[in-house]
Amino acid sequence: MGEETAHIQPGIEPDIERRPRGWRHSATWVYLVMLVASAVALAVSFILSADTLKLARNPNQQLGCDVNAVLSCSTVAQSWQAEIVKFGGLSYPNAFFGIAAESVFVTIAVIGLARIAVPRWFAACTWLGGLAALAYSYWLTSQSLFVIQALCPWCMVLMFSTTIQFIALSHATVVVQELPPRKEGMARGLDTYYRLNYDLMVDVVWILALLAIIMVKDGPMIFR
């Protein structure tokens, strides 16, 4: 009888058993997904910035992504929604801010891959920043779909990459950074959500829903 046995109340399992395990929940995987998505978003932001400069030099120039009346980067780029920040009498294209923001997210993903510990406040602010970027991207997409009545192919790529970036960032915030703190009831629910891979199902439905909205709204016109 020399062995000691831990006394656990019936129906309550140790916290370690409730936490997500496996390669999908490792820091390497979630931050790698975030890095790829952020790098794609950064590259697209550079392309959009270059297109903006082309139009500034020659407003009548047709861009390579001007396919038809619906798929038209120049139509979107020449709308007021493409330059909502104004300061000192000048307006600044959204793509310029995309370069700045996505550079930060690429850096954060690299920090995560390097397993560098960050304060909880930093992880929380990072998630809020990702949420703000996602909300801004969705607002711009809604403006393209329902107000401007034109779609920019590069903007669509940016929107989907920002969505995947936020999905990976949220995953990392919960399973790697362990926010919210494990003493809170919400944390246990999130652990179950990821441990049982419900997130994978939700993410697939999320992406398909975005595609469905675009196809229902402009599908017939896109392929003309």
UniProtKB/TrEMBL annotation:
Please give the Pfam families that the UniProt record associates with this protein: VKOR (PF07884)
From which residue to which does any coiled coil extend? none
Compartments annotated for it: namely: Membrane
What does the UniProt keyword field contain?
A: Disulfide bond, Membrane, Oxidoreductase, Quinone, Redox-active center, Transmembrane, Transmembrane helix
- What does the record give under GO molecular function? oxidoreductase activity; quinone binding
Membrane topology note:
Multi-pass membrane protein
List the CDD domains: VKOR_5 (cd12922)
Where would I find the Vitamin K epoxide reductase domain in this sequence?
27-173
Its cellular-component GO annotations read: membrane
Query: May I ask which residue range the UniProt record assigns to the signal sequence?
Result: none
TM region positions:
28-48, 95-114, 121-140, 146-176, 196-216
**What family does the entry list?**
Belongs to the VKOR family.
Please identify the protein, giving its name as recorded. Answer: Vitamin K epoxide reductase domain-containing protein
Species name? Bifidobacterium merycicum
- What high-level taxonomic lineage is stated for the organism? Bacteria, Bacillati, Actinomycetota, Actinomycetes, Bifidobacteriales
